[in-house]
Amino acid sequence: MTVCPTDDRHVAVLAFPYGTHATPLLNLVRRVAAEAPQVTFSTKKSNASVFAGLNKEQLFNIKPYDVDDGLPDNYVPSGNPKDAVAFFVKAMPANYRTALDEAVAKTGRHITCLVSDAFFLVFVLTWLKKCMQIRENKEVDFLTGFSGVKASDLPEGLVEEPQDPFSIMLEKLGEALPRATAVAINSFATVHLPIAHELESKLHKLLNVGQFILTTPQALSSPDEDGCLPWLNKQEEGSVVYLSFGSSIMPPPHELAAIAEALEEGKYPFIWAFRGNPEKQLPQGFLERTKTQGKVLLPVCVCMTHGGWNSVLDCIVGGVPMISRPFFGDQMLNTATMERVWEIGVELENGVFTKEGILRALELIMSSEKGKMTRQKIVELKDFAMAAGGPEGGSTKNFGTFSEIVGGSSYEQLNPQQHGYRGIRNKIAGAFAAANSRFTRRNNPKHQGLEAFCRHKQLQG
């Protein structure tokens, strides 16, 4: 993307084109773009969905460019989201350079600053080499403030062989981030102060700008075609189960069946943000039998989730405990953190959905004394998040700093005839990896908290 408070400013923003990386980064870009004249946002194949429904006024000065995702012609998805990541890693950095050249040629402006996506921030800066040396079941003892976390909870790329392409990329990322002018992350400092202090000691400037749902300009609301809100308002407070597994995850068929059986037997009111065809993928007759039981969000008592960082933060802002079934990436560590460190949710037994395991987890959260303590603790975290996103909060102030850095004029101007964007890239991209990948894709809804989920495709039971 590009941001320019003066005619010669051109800031390129590079996103990873898988999962929910592109959409949340666009939320950040839109807010920066509102304060600066020119922005170009680059991803491949996610552009259609990322920019869908946004008109020119909502895009401000944002111009999207495609970046080659490295997928072969006639590629057939395997169902494993990690496969697409592997192809993309192999295509870097040539794919980005091509898109940058195109942006320079079409705008006539040389790029003066790079904002690049990143992930696994804490690990690549502090513990990457240690992660690669541990065994799967060994308890990790070098994560500050993380008791009871095992190697199996860490993202896969951190415990691969040193010559694995993904591991090599993470190592290079860890070398580049300390040279950044600033690193912005979708979190708030008080959620885990030891980690914040450790990152501050390794970075030029750390900016906690989250929970981003609290600081993103509100988009036009989608119509409530399924009538979720009226249905929701009729439910008792703290009685509804919400289920969502992100944009890249679908539990296997036997686990979908277990979820459906547990919901039906437990008779809990529910809302399920379902990707796919529920009539074909859920047990026969389930929709008809539960049609008065299911719909979304103020009375939500628990969220059944995959443990993605965006979803975890959304639940914190909504004050809603979690039942997590992680699949890949940082989801295992997020799940371990919310259960064992923050104590704001539980992981499913053995990490898979079974009818008995789901019912026990629901009973624990919704009816037990431990569940009561869990709800109290997540409300405490919610208060911290709301304070951070308030007018005088730390996240709000950090976003102001972020905007000034991106749209300011404090950078040394290089000779564009001599350097083009490549000279600036060497000067600043190594000095500006400004956006962590964990900017949440939710926009601030009319009613704060988990009601943002009403904008997803709902399963009406």
TrEMBL record:
The top of its lineage is: Eukaryota, Viridiplantae, Streptophyta, Embryophyta, Tracheophyta
Q: Which Gene3D superfamilies does this entry report, sorted A to Z?
A: Glycogen Phosphorylase B
- Transmembrane stretches in the record are none
Gene Ontology MF, one: UDP-glucosyltransferase activity
Any Pfam family from its record, for instance, is UDPGT
* Cited CDD domains: GT1_Gtf-like (cd03784)
Keyword terms: Transferase
Name by which UniProt lists this protein:
Glycosyltransferase
